[in-house]
Structure formats: C-alpha cells, structure tokens
C-alpha cells in the first residue's frame, strides 16, 4: 500500500504509523461515563471510505488524515491533520 503524503509525495505505507479512526469526536466533559466509554472503546467498522490518522515517522513527521477504502485498502486521499477538524 502506498500513501500520498501531501508533503513528501507517494510513499510506502511502512514509513507510516497508524493511529485510528479520525471521525471520533471527544465528548463534552459533562457527557457522562457511557459517552466516554463509547469514545474510548467503540468503533464502527464501515465497508467503504474511512478517514484515519496516520503519522509519517519515516518522512516529514507529520500527522495526516488519510481516507482509505476499507474494502480494498485503496487510498482515496490524504491531507495534513493540522488545523483540520475530524470529519465523519
Ligand atoms: Zn510526509
């Protein structure tokens, strides 16, 4: 799998570290225990496009939001995560 880093160009996935789903939103401080349990442990498993956080440790050391199709691991796009609010 190759990931198109917006700073370095297309690079091998081995240069990156995967963090996880970039669509999860931290609940408000007063949201309650159930909301924090869901935030920490529960994830959807969609078949299709999913925005994920990846770290380019073998390159520019930037955090990226990579959109990947979970059915075939095709990369649909990648943007710098700085200043970006996670999108569902
Ligand atoms: Zn990079």
TrEMBL record:
<protein>
    <submittedName>
        <fullName>Sarcosine oxidase subunit delta</fullName>
        <ecNumber>1.5.3.1</ecNumber>
    </submittedName>
</protein>
<dbReference type="GO" id="GO:0008115">
    <property type="term" value="F:sarcosine oxidase activity"/>
</dbReference>
<dbReference type="InterPro" id="IPR038561">
    <property type="entry name" value="SoxD_sf"/>
</dbReference>
<dbReference type="InterPro" id="IPR006279">
    <property type="entry name" value="SoxD"/>
</dbReference>
<dbReference type="Pfam" id="PF04267">
    <property type="entry name" value="SoxD"/>
</dbReference>
<keyword id="KW-0560">Oxidoreductase</keyword>
């Amino acid at each position: 799998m190759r990931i198109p880093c917006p700073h370095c160009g297309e690079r091998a996935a081995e240069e990156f570290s995967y963090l996880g789903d970039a669509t999860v939103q931290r609940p408000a401080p007063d949201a309650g225990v159930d909301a924090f349990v869901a935030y920490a442990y529960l994830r959807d498993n969609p078949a299709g496009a999913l925005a994920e956080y990846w770290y380019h440790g073998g390159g520019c050391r930037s955090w990226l939001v990579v959109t990947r199709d979970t059915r075939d691991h095709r990369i649909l796009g990648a943007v710098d995560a700085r200043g970006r609010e996670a999108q569902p």
